[in-house]
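User: Sequence for Bestrophin homolog below. Tokens please.
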Amino acid sequence: MSSKFTDRMRKGAESSERRLRNTSMGLSAPKLEYLKIILYYSSWEQFNWISWPDKMMMTVATCFPGKENVEVRKAIARWSSLQSAIAWTGISVRTLKRFPTERHLVESRLMTEEEYDMYTNMSAPHGKWFVPIMWILNLIKLKHKEKRIDSVQLDILLRQVYSFRDGFAMLYVYDWVKVPLVYTQVVAIATYGYFLICLLGRQPKLDIKSMQTEITILFPIFTTFQMLFYVGWLKVGQYLMNPFGEDDDDFELNYVLDRNTCIAHMMASELADQLPSRASIAHDFHVQLPHTRASFKIQDIIPKSHLSDFTLTHKDMQLIRPEELEDCRQEEEAKEKAQRSRLNQLARQITRDGKDNKNHKNAEEVVHLTGNVAENSTDPITEV
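Assistant: Structure tokens for Bestrophin homolog:
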């Protein structure tokens, strides 16, 4: 009784193992690459929405030139950095740790005491990260009323400020609407469930028949590599969910803020009215630029059109005058008719040669058969 029960358990285990093996071979691993692509695309889109003040400050320096407008340029440059600091503290852990309160903005000289009082006394239940942008717009509007800029310049400046503001708004939207957590959970559960099935279904066969006919691998090498690859992809996807964190590969908005502050200040002060002398403007330059010995060894391939080597014969390039069009058309029709006639003659000749060859072949077969009959037949008189 015990032996029968043991055999039944063994057969049941083998049947279950076979079923799980077939299931693991039929199933494909979860589509982790889809999650990775989605999160990578989302991270790249968020990076593209990081606001850079370069174009706005170039426009400001152009519309507000001269030493009399230096305060306006510097105020807009400082408020652009203040805007970045306030907005990014709501989405980036690094920036939040750098400016945890509004007083840190004052101590960083991005905000004055008057601006601090105005900002903190403002009641905004839905956020007030856009306040420095409004200060920039109000300053531009004031200068337009003072006739410092015209309507065309006002329109250009407003477009640049709106574009600068859109980046912060889109980052807030990305921070608000994230990849659904249930999606990542389903992918994680599916991944670990898949490898659980592989663990149970890809056990080595230790019966005598299998060991005699198959190569027994006690350690699942390929399953181990498969697990490392897919679990690695899963972890990469999980790290990409929040690109504004504190990981080494996350976006370093503190550096971006420092860079933008420096560039905006340079454009507002040093570069606003900087212009080379007339002699430098009139300086001529060589069309053929020099190379170093290191760069000369690397010859770049000049791109060419696929028709760059296309040529026509001298006859094909001859112009046809309007009065010659009818004659040329008749000439082309005559050539086509003659060509068709030659092709028809060639086809008839090929058909005729084929028939002659067939008749000749049939005649040879008849002669061959007649000769065989003559050889096989005997003279009846000789036989008698």
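Residues 11-48+180-240 form one domain.
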